[in-house]
Amino acid sequence: MTPDRTASPAPPPSRGSGVHAPTAELPTTGGSDAERDADARALASSLRVRILRICLDEARTNKEIAQALGKNPATTLHHVRTLVARGFLTAQPERTGARGAREVPYLATGKSWTADLGPGGHRVLLDAFLDELAAADPATVDMGRLGLRLDAAGREELSRRLNEVLEDFRQREPAAGGEPWSVFVAIHHDASRDPR
Questions:
Q1: Where are the alpha helices (DSSP H) in 24-114?
Q2: Contact 111, 26 (CB under 8 A)
């Protein structure tokens, strides 16, 4: 199975966007309801979730982010500033660009891994995943879908075990010269299979 395996199982609903710094000590979201709501609003955009993914392994400037997304830098700058203000991105030391301009690169902090995405957060993650999947080479995609019938204990075990695998890989040092891979998993109640 390749690392981009997608099946119906996933982290429990409270898990964040999964955009994280692989070996960094993860920052946590604010303790108050207002702080958690502000974080959820900051992550309520598939474009912002994609920006975090772009800045996951390497600090990128706003111009580089815009180029990677095929967007105008003015558009991405608003999103970058929002992510910085909420602690999802952090500015790195300034550097000088090709024409001598001051450039500020940004790096994902990992805070999104522990953030509560709020009621619409799962749709945002799905939209970001679909945008990234559309850009992927189909030969590199390994997907699966599975229907199960589980009791509460089985559902809890499935979530726990999947989370253990994700957390194990999250904590590993990035492989030297390794290729970037993304994983998206989801567990949901299958209302289409409810008894009539």
A1: 33-42, 46-54, 62-69, 73-85
A2: yes
